[in-house]
Amino acid sequence: MARCVQSVQEFIQDSFVPKVAVLCSEDAEKVTRKNNLNFAELLRPFCRLTSEGHLRDPNNQLQPVKNIRISINNIVTYPSPASGTLSSAQRRLLSEVVLSCQPSEGGGANVITAGDYDLSFNATTPWFEAYRESFLQSMSASDHEFLNHYLACLLVVSSGEAVPVDQFLKLSQEQHRIQHSGEYTSPKWFIPNTLKYYVLLHDMSEGDEQRADTVYEDMKQRYGAQGCYLLKLNSHTIIAGADEQIPDPWSQYLQKNNLHSQDSVEEPAPAVVNRAAIENNVDAVEVVWHDSAEKADGVLNCLDRHPLQLDTSSDPGNLDTLRIMTSEQKKSTEGQAGAATTHGACLTLSDHDRIRQFVQEFTFRGLLPHIEKNIRQLNDQLVSRKGLSRSLFSATKKWFGGGKVPEKSISEFKGTTGLLYPQEAPELQIRKMADLCFLVQHYELAYSCYHTAKKDFLSDQAMLYAAGALEMAAVSSFLQAGAPRPYPAHYMETAIQTYRDICKNMVLAERCALLSAEVLKSQCKYSDAAALLIKMTSEDSDLRSALLLEQAAHCFINMRNPMVRKFAFHMILAGHRFSKAGQKRHALRCYCQALQVYKGKGWSLAEDHINFTIGRQSFTLMQPENAASAFREILTNNSQQTATQQGAFLREFLYVYKSVMAGSEVQLPELPLPCIHSSAIRIYFGHERRLAEGEKQAATHVSLDQEYDPELAALWCHLEEQVVAAANGGVVPVTFQPTQCCLNSQTDNLSSPLAVVEEPIIVEVVFRNPLKVPLVLSDLYLLWRFTPKHPSQLLDNPTAEPEAEVITNERDMLTSGVTKKDDVISTEVIPEFFMSTEETKAARLKLLPRLTGQLNILGVAYSLAAFPLTEVASGTEGHQTVESLMVSGKQNLEIRGPRLNHTKEDKTLVRHGLDRRLNPIITPAMPLMEVFFLQFPTALLCGEIRKAYVEFSNVSSVSLCGLRVVSTHPDFFTFGGMPTTPHTPFSSAVAENCSAYKTQATSPLTQPSSAASVMLVSPQEFCQTSGVVYIPVEGGTLQPGQSTQLPLWLRGPDQEGVHEINFLFYYESAEKGGKKSHRVLRHTVFICASRSLSVCATACRSNIPPAESREEETNNMLVFLDVENINTSEAGVREFHIVQVSSMSRHWQLQKCINPAKDKEYKLTSRERTKLCFRATRCKPSQAPSHAVEKYIFADLNLGNERIISSTTPCGDFFLRCCQTPESSRDSVAAAGTLPQSRSHGHLPATDRTSDIANIIKKCNEVDLDIVVLWKAFVVEDNKQLILEGQFHVALQTIGKETYSLTHREEAQEMVLLKFKSELTPPVIQPSVDQLSNLVTTNLHYPETYSHPFMLERLCVVPVTLTLSNCSLAQVDVIIDLGHKIISSESVVVHSSFTWLGQSQYKLQLKVQEVLHLPLQACFLHTGVFNLSIPCILAKPTHQGTIYETSQQTASPALIIINNISA
Question: Per the omega criterion (within 30 degrees of 0), is the bond before 674 cis?
């Protein structure tokens, strides 16, 4: 079953509550009538008590009573109807209750996912709960149970009466007469001695409060303090002009009675309508049996007629009278409803508290003690009577098998209900005691009594009584706290079967089923509950069957494993029964919920049937939109119907659609065909790109033929942010919005796009024909609404209300066909748009704005026909048929924005953002630039330099300036460092063999080993090294219609493969102040890079002994270049020539090339490798001028006949671009001319040298030297030999570490555990072993050959000098151990053939960059070749206790040859 507002315990407790009657005097009614309420209605919102009461059971045990609710009603006298079935009035009332309760739009929806099904249905069914509540309240009191009998009666008298006590006496006598005279069969009373509670009603606004207190004191003396109460009301004084908001808790209760009132006045009754009730018009029609004697006594009998009572009188006069009076009451009801009558206008919050206190006092001090007293009396009677007689007669029945005992006076009833008991029968006394215990929540004692009564009733074959006892025994067992026993579901099944089959009482059977189903649902026994509800369906009541089938469907969907198809099947059955019962809205809802299961699952015939039914029900309910949607599903669904059938459906639909929309000339009707993919709508702003001319290659930019890529769009946005920041001093403006030329569902459409006057707007609309029948759309064009605005209005407040007249073309087709307003918006019209069967086709519709303002694209307008016009017969009849089957209409282009998911409300509710792509703002004219590329390559060698040309053209009427470009590969191109002079037009013949470098001829006698050419260059000379490049246009401005050509140097990527390179050209309007500040132009090229050379560079410290006069040059190193030709001759490359090696640094420079083979040419064929060696020296700051500290030192070592000046364009540009770190090149958004700082920082100040020993040790191995290798390649192409040029860059950073020109893929880092708590003390970063092993360099100076006469002198002593150089910026402690022994890999101790004389171990201390010469002596015993390398030299920074001595790297083996000479 569906989820209910109340729990099952609350539902059962509210279904069976103590009932209290009310008798009021006429003056008391006048007091309450001031608030448009009678006394019973006045108390109704306060009848649920939140306080806890107590009573004692027959065993003197205290029992709590929690959240009890009492039912207070006026006395209604009417003949009791048959309890087995519902009357026509009751049926009509229940039908109206269900009809008036409809599901709220979009509220209470429950979404579940079961397998492949995503179902959305109503989580709650308030119409079922309203039906259930009305059904239980409309049940009349029965003789076999006492739950609906009155327990007490409130006698209400006003304090304004002359003698209130006499009025109490008259009301008491009237109640006694109604109960005991036998004149009335209704209402029924629980016990003969009904509790009478006397209420004195005092009007605070009129009455004398002192007199009321005096009367109340007299009442307490007469009736006792527990039996009377003084209730003071109407404390509020209405003051003119005061508007105090007092809550109205009565509306929700009185609203439920409106249907009862409306239904009851339509039913005639054999009584006279109470005048007071007509004046109030707030409750059901109250009827009284007028007695002249009672009227003479001045007592008003408030005996209400039951609202569901049928007419039993045959007097036509009474019928006519009642009809006249009911018609008048209807008019007064409508008048009061229109006036929005308020209730409780004379009551204050204090009065509310007094009423609440009165109900609590009456319940806890009057009603509950009365119930407790009667439970004790009934228990005592049953114990005394059954202890004597029951045992005797049970023994008699046992022996003689007799029937009922004669003294019980039980009359046999030969019907379906069995026996009928008198009121004094012990069985009924037990049932009465059980009902009393049940009403006060003493479920354990109630269950015991019900169980006992059930046995007696079954033994007597009193089946109606037995079924009632079984029903309440099962309910009492379920409600017992702690669940001492399982819920006896078989009791309920037996009771339902008895009610339905034996007693033929469907009303009681339905009540029993409703209770049992709720209990089973609370225990998650949905299968049993569904089976029970389905059994209760029958043909006698379509409404009951529909409601129970719907609840059974909810049981199937709420199971642990939802049974989706059973849910849908029973929903369809429920919808069918709702339709038969006249509940069209509920029938439509059931079919719609069932459609979710069958939709899109291949059940095409069932789906067509459901959609057809939904369409009919929607059309009946005057919901043309829903009907059109359902019929659209029949036509647009992937139906398996034949083409003929679909054609018939379409023609019938067009006919119905045309008949429904006939006469509607206000606006164009909505058409369902063809289907429009709203999310696929794309909008393009601007002209179509001009095609290439000759050798010119146009920029790609953006077009509708390109697919949208979110990652690429984010890349373009990032590039635009860079160039905008560069144009605005390094800061992105707050109002910056990225340019979007083509909008779709994946772009950011939160703000209105900007279009330009006299530039077209192209809207691409995707249509889909779902039918197997061709469609023809004629006169297809866009619908729009335009608000002209001045450019200043667009700039200041674009969202302001327009002052000008709104212009639209929506009614053009309604008047005289299509009319184009070319002076405002030029609209393109497609005469005929043919769509074949099941085709998806895009139509591109164009608008050309002529004025500035706000444009809203509303939809598309067209005429729809079922088949092509060309296939129509030429006859007159055929032409009339075509016209009759053609419908002119429109479809709105409604685009729903993305789903919001930011706040909690967004996550819980379904909210979508805005999508304004169809609402562009038309801005004034802007410059428009076109870019063409000349001699732009598509394939390059890695590192190849190529020169191309770019042509910029201004094709608009506005001048442009501020031309810049940014790229994803800034190291791929350069425009040069200096502003270029005007160039002649490009010529391919001139550019064929032109070198891209600036060269200088050298003397042929110059040897490669000669010193390098050095040049100092300031960073300001390279103004184009940032990511954003300023394009040097002559004059800085392009006038309208002007074009210019500039050279562009390209360099092939270092990695082979196909590279996607994006250019973003930025330009501004020379006329400032517009809403659109700039424009961009995109260009994407794909470059195929082939392998060429691979360069590996290594730097190591030089161990060459310096000359005595040049000891200051010990700060040098060797640079080794390993160059390999990795080209596989794919591009026809024959060989590579290395023509020059250059360096760039602030602290180092290449000095000369060390080439053992003096005449060797540095050329490499395929897979050949060569190795080059260069000496690099550190620049001496003392020799450099002070202003040269911030300059770069370029050193060129040419290996051929000409020198390439590496410090000029393009070599220097690419050199600096490629040597920048990736972070600096990507994040560079500053203006052109800023160059990143070098990686090394040179010499540290003296105050910082000892601050961080780890950094000091690390920096002793760092080197800042960038190497560029320039080469030429000879390529054969088309039987011609071409010379290609290129360069590779290698950045040396660490001594001893190999560096490659090609970046290798980094290995995946090892996964480490996340630390959520920071360390108390950060760990000390210790220098690595490699760093500590390079603190000191060593050199041994000795003669390579030494001759000694061993025959004359056995010992040969050779002097050796050990040179120690401190390479770090800290003092170093050095330990030299000359006696250390070498352990070979075979672990064999090898004794040296020579020994060191003198001191065997030295402990020295070297200052910062100190060079120390240590004299040593080696002693040899015989001739041979000896290795003088010292195996153990240890070093560590001074005063560093945490760092241990580390073995230093020694030079290569120091070999000496000892010869013997004769004497």
Answer: yes
809: three-class secondary structure by DSSP: coil
How big is the chain, counted in residues? 1463
Considering only CA atoms, which of 1022, 1019, 1018, 1015 is closest in space to residue 1195?
1015
Give the Å distances, CA to CA, from 1180 to 325, 1011, 1015, 1055, 1189. Answer: 121, 16, 15, 37, 11
Tokens (6 digits) for 889: 């209409």
Name the residue among 275, 252, 243 with its Cα closest to residue 345.
243
Please tell me the distance from the alpha carbon of residue 272 to that of residue 325, in angstroms, as a whole number: 10
Query: Which contiguous run of DSSP H or E holds residue 447?
Result: helix 443-459
pLDDT score of 290 more than 60: no
- Joined together, the tokens standing for residue 813 give 């087709």
Asked if 106 and 120 touch (Cβ cutoff 8 Å), the reply is no
Average pLDDT of the segment spanning 1352-1376 = 88
Q: Which helix (H) or strand (E) holds 546?
A: helix 542-557
Question: In a 10 Å sphere around its CB, with 0-12 CB exposed, 13-18 middle and 19+ buried, how is residue 304 labelled?
Answer: buried
**Whether the predicted pLDDT of 833 surpasses 90:** yes
ω into residue 187 within 30 of 0, thus cis?
yes
Q: What is the mean pLDDT of residues 256-285?
A: 40
Q: For the residues of 948-997, what is the DSSP string, one character each? A: EEEEEEE-SSS-EEEEEEEES-GGGEE--SSPPPPPPPP-HHHHSS--SS
Q: Residue 907: how many CA atoms within 13 Å on its side-chain side? A: 3
Give Cα separations from 1070 to 142, 958, 960, 1005, 1186 (angstroms).
96, 7, 5, 57, 43
From the list 1150, 1145, 1303, the residue with the least C-alpha distance to 1215 is 1145
**Cα torsion through 27, 31, 36, 42, rounded to 10:** -110
pLDDT bin (cut points 50, 70, 90) of residue 1104 is: low
- Which tokens sit at 441? 């929540």
pLDDT digits (tens, 9 = 90+) for 631-687: 778 876 677 777 887 887 787 677 667 766 765 566 777 887 888 998 899 999 988
Give φ, ψ of 847 to 5 degrees. -125, 145
Q: 3-state SS of the chain: helix, strand, coil percent to 5? A: 30, 25, 40
Cβ-based neighbours of 317, under 8 Å, separated by 6 or more: none
Confidence of residue 393 (pLDDT cuts 50, 70, 90): very low
Q: 277 with 332: CB under 8 angstroms? A: no
Residue type, 1319: E
Q: What angle do helix axes 88-100 and 251-265 make, rounded to 10 degrees?
A: 140
Summarised one tens digit per residue, pLDDT across range 9-27 is: 888 999 999 999 999 999 9
Residues in Cβ contact with 1256 at an 8 Å cutoff, skipping those fewer than 6 apart: 1244, 1249, 1250, 1368, 1369, 1370, 1437
What's the angle, vertex CA 83, arms to CA 78 and CA 88, rounded to 5? 75
Contact 1268, 1142 (CB under 8 A): yes
DSSP 1020-1073: GG-TT-SSEEE---GGGEE-TT-EEEEEEEEE--SS-EEEEEEEEEEEEESS--
> What is the pairing mode between strands 109-114 and 1411-1420?
unpaired
pLDDT at 314 over 80: no
Q: Vertex 509, ends 508 and 510: CA angle to 5°?
A: 90
Report the alpha-carbon distance of residue 536 to residue 525 in Å, rounded.
17
CB 25 within 8 Å of CB 157: yes
Convert 940-971 to b/e letters by CB count within 10 Å (16 or more is b): bbbbbbbbbbbbbbbebebbbebbbbbbbbbb
Rounded Cα distance, 637 and 634, in Å: 6
Of 1354, 1381, 1387, 1179, which is closest to residue 1263 (Cα–Cα)?
1179
Q: Which residues contact 991 (CB under 8 A, 6 or more apart)?
A: 935, 947
Angstrom distance (rounded) from CA 986 to CA 694: 12
Would you call the peptide bond into 1210 cis, given omega within 30 degrees of 0 as the criterion? Answer: yes
> Residue 1153 carries which side chain, given as an amino acid letter?
C
